[in-house]
Amino acid sequence: MKGPLFYSKILLFGEYGIIKDSKGLSIPYNFYNGALKVDENLDGKAKKSNQELLKFANYLEDVSSDSESEVTFDIDKLKSDVKAGLYFDSSIPQGYGVGSSGALVAAIYDKYALNRITVLENLGREKLLQLKRIFSKMESFFHGKSSGLDPLNSYLSLPILIKSHEDLEPAGIPSQTTSGKGAVFLLDSGIVGETAPMVSIFMENMKQEGFKNMIKDKFVKHTDACVDDFLKGDFKSLFTNVKNLSNVVLDNFKPMIPQKFHDLWKKGIDTNAYYLKLCGSGGGGYILGFTEDFEKAQKALSDHKLEVVYTF
């Protein structure tokens, strides 16, 4: 058995902000993917995945039996497949902010959810929100708290515009140009990040009036402007807003930026060669970069591994 492929995702804008109703824009990233497979001779990574799936199956059994649950699973089938050697064969790096658990959740829902909402249906706002709620519940097993957006992106394999908690839609993003110098890229921090501790730092900070006001007055404002500019293809305005956002993150989200990248972050803002922002919850994994001249950014970041995500 080999299931269909589910892709990684990149939240271009909206990390942390979407918890507080900012806009967000999430795109599939087809460079990494994963699929469910069965093998009776498991070792290493596959064995670990299989053990994790057994715990996940037990968790989903509770979700299934909840009378208010919007989803039920074929738990017997899932458990017998796990016993037979089911695992998630994935190239998506874990703890890197590109949705490794989201792709797994999408794959499990696709294969084992009863009465599932399929991608072929006419997915209006209500169905999208229902899927997001289901995925949020499922992915909470991995992170403690999940928006459900990563699995939704992986399941639909479409860019998604988040307008607010209760309003999201598939989005059309500007076509990439091969001739342009500008790029969105991933910078590998070389450190694995963990989502749950970062989210709890954020939630703790939200109890402080000053931090809460900064999120509302600066972080959400710049994030919303970035989303609008990107969708319109107004890259001149986008870079002004990304620079502002990069500054706000450096000033207020230091625990989420690995220590050795603080100076590099500031260097980008000071030289305008590139601007960095969080990719996912931060704390490690990938850092997202924006530049108007990728060659210039490459020179400035020559000690680091960069992957281009989008060109313009």
TrEMBL record:
<dbReference type="GO" id="GO:0005524">
    <property type="term" value="F:ATP binding"/>
</dbReference>
<dbReference type="Pfam" id="PF00288">
    <property type="entry name" value="GHMP_kinases_N"/>
</dbReference>
<dbReference type="GO" id="GO:0016301">
    <property type="term" value="F:kinase activity"/>
</dbReference>
<dbReference type="InterPro" id="IPR001174">
    <property type="entry name" value="HddA/FKP"/>
</dbReference>
<dbReference type="InterPro" id="IPR020568">
    <property type="entry name" value="Ribosomal_Su5_D2-typ_SF"/>
</dbReference>
<keyword id="KW-0547">Nucleotide-binding</keyword>
<keyword id="KW-0418">Kinase</keyword>
<keyword id="KW-0067">ATP-binding</keyword>
<dbReference type="InterPro" id="IPR014721">
    <property type="entry name" value="Ribsml_uS5_D2-typ_fold_subgr"/>
</dbReference>
<dbReference type="InterPro" id="IPR036554">
    <property type="entry name" value="GHMP_kinase_C_sf"/>
</dbReference>
<keyword id="KW-0808">Transferase</keyword>
<protein>
    <submittedName>
        <fullName>Mevalonate kinase</fullName>
    </submittedName>
</protein>
<feature type="domain" description="GHMP kinase N-terminal">
    <location>
        <begin position="84"/>
        <end position="150"/>
    </location>
</feature>
<dbReference type="InterPro" id="IPR006204">
    <property type="entry name" value="GHMP_kinase_N_dom"/>
</dbReference>
